[in-house]
Design goal:
Blueprint (H helix, E strand, L loop, with lengths): L2 E3 L6 E4 L9 E4 L10 H7 L5 E4 L3 E3 L2 E3 L3 E3 L2 E2 L1 H22 L5 E5 L1 H12 L6 E5 L17 E7 L7 H13 L3 E7 L7 H13 L4
Parallel strand pairs: 3-4, 3-9, 9-10, 10-11, 11-12
Antiparallel strand pairs: 1-2, 2-4, 5-6, 7-8
Length: 210
């Protein structure tokens, strides 16, 4: 049974693993979501994995996000860096509190962007990532050692929010830093499709993560 918790630095939900040993999933919702949004997706693609799902602390017109933006696609760079460090610290807290191994981030939109920022700024915090409709989060990406970290990026060919060249640039910069990147462009918009679910589940299995 999922429980809403607030004892750590983020309001979050946590569910321990219920199947064969597999890395936990760190669920990172999109703008306006909360700690509940991605739980059904996680249960579909990785039924036995532990789930750690924080709620973004930034409010934009009352909608939770993980960092501030100045306009659509224009991110507050200082806030991205601060919030990525804050999220990585929460992951460390949660690992100690719940006895978790490093999680695989499963992020959508704003959540995928903060996951990418954590990969670049605090790579030790994550074992890998599934980035759904992600953009480059940092204008000046830092050097980072991502050697061997598996990363799946799923983009929408008709996405009105994420430019195709931006998603491709994110895939390239993560690969340049050593990540094992798979980037697929699906016939979809910004919302998720059945193909996203199927590919994410298959990727977790073939990457040896479940």
């Amino acid at each position: 049974m999922l429980k809403a918790l607030s004892a750590l630095s983020f309001v979050h939900r946590f569910e321990p693993e219920s199947g064969p040993a597999a890395p936990p999933l760190l669920l990172l919702h999109g703008t306006g979501g909360d700690e509940n949004d991605l739980v059904p997706l996680a249960r579909t693609i990785a039924p036995g994995s532990a789930v750690l799902s924080p709620r973004g602390k930034v409010l934009e017109n009352g909608m939770p996000r993980f960092f501030r933006r100045l306009a659509e696609g224009v991110f507050d760079q200082d806030d991205v860096r601060r919030r990525a460090q804050e999220l990585a610290d929460f992951v460390s807290e949660a690992r100690a509190s719940y006895g978790l191994t490093a999680p695989i981030a499963l992020g959508f939109s704003n959540g995928a962007n903060i996951a990418a920022a954590v990969l670049l700024l605090r790579p030790e915090a994550l074992a890998g990532a599934i980035l759904l409709r992600a953009m480059v989060p940092l204008a000046v990406p830092p050097a980072a050692d991502l050697a061997g970290k598996p990363v799946l990026i799923l983009s929408g060919a008709m996405d009105p929010i994420v430019p195709a060249d931006n998603a491709a640039r994110l895939a390239a910069l993560l690969a340049e830093r050593g990540a094992a990147v798979r980037h697929e462009i699906l016939p979809a918009g910004h919302g998720l499709s059945k193909a996203d679910i199927a590919i994410a589940g298959q990727w977790l299995q073939t990457a040896g993560l479940t």
